[in-house]
Amino acid sequence: MTRAPARRRARLVSAGLALVLLPAGQAMADGRQANAPTAQQAASKPQTAVKPQTVTLITGDRVTVTDLGGGRKTVEVERPKGATGAVRSEIANGRITVVPDEVRPYVQAGTLDKRLFDVSELLRQGLGDGDAALPLIVTYTKNTKNTKGARSAPRGAEQVRALPSVGGAAVRARTDGEFWGAATAARTSAMSRDAGGAFAAGVAKIWLDGRVKADMAQSNAQIGTAKAWEAGLTGKGVKVAVLDTGVDAAHPDLKDRIAESKSFIEGEEVEDHNGHGTHVASTVGGSGAASEGKEKGVAPGAQLAVGKVLSNAGSGSESQIIAVWNGRRRTSTPRSSP
């Protein structure tokens, strides 16, 4: 554990695994690996400039990651005005986490998603400083309602979609500290511990509304479907939901196989213009008609209920997938495929 000189940003250089505890406004001096090249050796080698990447955490902490090459990175943390306590920055196996002291009680209580402090993951999802707000899923306590009886997002956040099935909503929260301040409302770390990591402003839990993407599955031939069919397990009498990029209802393997379908992507029909959803639906319950029965789905006797939760580009969000349940509850009769 290392304490750094005062009045500097928190800075960490990776050397396999490092952990620093830095009070607000302090920093650790630049470290080196034991086998790091000397300045003269480094100068003799061509250097490729890598633009630093910066992400702002839900707390308002600005984290800047600089790739030095050779598997080495530096991490600088600039604490927001008025922040108290320390930040614990860790680089392990190339993965960076930055956890301010004031969030630890919430993370430990399970009321705050630890992914919100996984800097590597936030950058991977494109949530660097080019994105002015964080996509979040917020669940509320039972008594959190405005004068019209609807749940209202905490100050500093804008609601994207309601998620009544989880008692919350998808929101976009500003990272200037206003949202975090409203959600914690003058609670110190000690107060949070006493309250078991409970939030203020009627907030029950806060999660990252992570971005999800289609990914190809292995062929059903590798999971022993032939033995299941021999045992009479074909899916007959079962309805299976496929949540993906939609479906090509005209595909020979899916003709008369789709009992209902619905798009949960605004502005896009359920028709699959990506291909992945049709692939998955066929793997689940395709009849094998296009291959004369050679490539049947896992459950060729099942009916399919298709929900389009990923866009034609193959991407979406966790809250859009959660919204499927809300939409299904509002649908009193099945919608037929186009």
Distance between the ends: 62 Å
Mean pLDDT: 78
Q: Secondary-structure element sequence?
A: EEHEEEEEHHEEEHHEEHEEHEEH
Strand proportion, as a percent range, falls in: 25-35%
Shape: elongated
Tally of separate helices: 8
Strand runs, count: 16
Which key terms come to mind for this protein?
338 residues; alpha+beta; four-stranded antiparallel sheet; 16 strands; 28% strand
Can you put this structure into words, describing what you see?
- By secondary structure, the protein is α+β, with helices and mostly antiparallel strands.
- The chain is built from eight helices and 16 strands.
- The radius of gyration is 25 Å and the shape is elongated.
- The protein starts with 9 loop residues before the first strand and ends in an 8-residue tail after the last helix.
Helix and strand topology:
Blueprint: E1 10-13, E2 17-23, H1 39-43, E3 53-56, E4 62-69, E5 72-78, E6 86-92, E7 95-100, H2 104-109, H3 119-124, E8 133-140, E9 157-163, E10 168-174, H4 178-184, H5 189-194, E11 203-208, E12 211-213, H6 225-230, E13 239-244, E14 258-263, H7 276-285, E15 303-308, E16 315-317, H8 318-330
Parallel strand pairs: 13-15, 14-15
Antiparallel strand pairs: 1-5, 2-6, 3-4, 4-5, 6-7, 8-10, 8-11, 9-10, 12-16
Task: Briefly summarize what is shown.
The chain has 338 residues and is an alpha+beta fold. 17% of the residues lie in helices and 28% in strands.
